[in-house]
Specification:
mainly alpha; 122 residues; elongated; single chain
Length: 122
């Protein structure tokens, strides 16, 4: 595979990540698809590293940071699911109330990592 093909593949993976995040319903699958596409883009970028170290570092940092923002979304979803499980399993009313409060607070957090996208931020 030549350099032009690798560059094209990297651009295609970045476009796929953007496309996943533009879906009308930004759900777990969309976030997962975007994260996968960013990981693939970074993988292709590593193949181009010997050509321009400075460009590699700059673009790798940008892609890594984008992926990290999406990791927060995934973490929020896992937290919500775990809190729901704990609430279901808890027998003591006082502990259940505390877990309910924690769950209510956590409900305010999902997709906050992508909220800047819809509000015009970067």
């Amino acid at each position: 595979m030549d350099i032009a093909h690798i560059q094209l593949a990297v651009r295609r993976h970045i476009a796929n990540a953007k496309k996943a995040l533009r879906r009308p319903k930004l759900d777990d699958e969309a976030v997962h698809d975007a994260r996968k596409a960013l990981k693939r883009a970074r993988s292709g970028l590593r193949l181009l590293r010997p050509l321009d170290e400075a460009a590699y570092r700059r673009e790798n940092t940008r892609l890594r940071n984008a992926g990290r923002r999406l990791s927060g979304v995934r973490d929020d979803k896992v937290l919500l699911a775990r809190l729901a499980e704990l609430i279901d399993d808890e027998k003591k009313p006082a502990r259940r109330r505390l877990l309910d409060e924690a769950h209510a607070l956590a409900l305010q957090a999902p997709y906050r990592a992508c909220a800047t996208r819809s509000s015009g931020g970067r």
